[in-house]
């Protein structure tokens, strides 16, 4: 959002917040449902949010294409462009958390975040048992 200059739009627009929530919720779908799931945000993109959707689609869902040779005429004299599909940088199997959510497993790939969460839980339990009902947030 920040890199695309959309932070203020997010703060000001309920539609943009809803759209962002739709994008976030794609992580909860089974991988097989992702192509159908992304169609709804694609068909309901608020004006000006197309760059965010295109970025998400290219880097997290379908990937991009790269031209692999110059346009060359085919047998009929028509120029033909050859493209190679480039897979997404962060393919869905990395960020989809559908199954781990159902299995009640850790939903982060960030080991530091996971470790901090575990420490916080342990510390909270230790302080709660030692000091009564102290609340740590």
Question: In terms of topology, how is this protein built?
Answer:
Layout: H1 7-12, H2 14-25, H3 34-43, H4 50-61, E1 64-73, E2 79-86, H5 92-95, H6 98-102, H7 111-131
Antiparallel strand pairs: 1-2
Characterization of this structure:
This protein is of the alpha+beta class. The chain has a domain at 7-91. The chain is built from seven helices and two strands. It has helices spanning 7-12, 14-25, 34-43, 50-61, 92-95, 98-102, 111-131; strands at 64-73, 79-86. It has a two-stranded antiparallel sheet with strand order 1-2. A hairpin with a 5-residue loop joins strand 1 and strand 2. It is extended, with a radius of gyration of 22 Å.
């Amino acid at each position: 959002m920040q890199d695309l200059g959309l932070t203020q739009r997010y703060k000001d627009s309920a539609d943009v917040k809803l759209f962002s929530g739709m994008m976030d919720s794609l992580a909860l779908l089974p991988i097989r449902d992702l192509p159908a799931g992304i169609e709804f945000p694609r068909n309901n993109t608020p004006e000006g949010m197309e760059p965010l959707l295109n970025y998400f689609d290219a880097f997290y869902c379908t990937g991009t294409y790269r031209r692999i040779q110059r346009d060359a005429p085919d047998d009929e004299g028509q120029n033909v462009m050859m493209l190679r599909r480039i897979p997404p940088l962060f393919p869905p199997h990395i960020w989809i958390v559908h199954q781990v959510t159902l299995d009640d497993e850790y939903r982060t790939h960030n080991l530091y975040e996971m470790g901090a969460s575990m420490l916080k839980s342990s510390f909270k339990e230790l302080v709660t048992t030692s000091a009564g009902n102290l609340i740590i947030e």
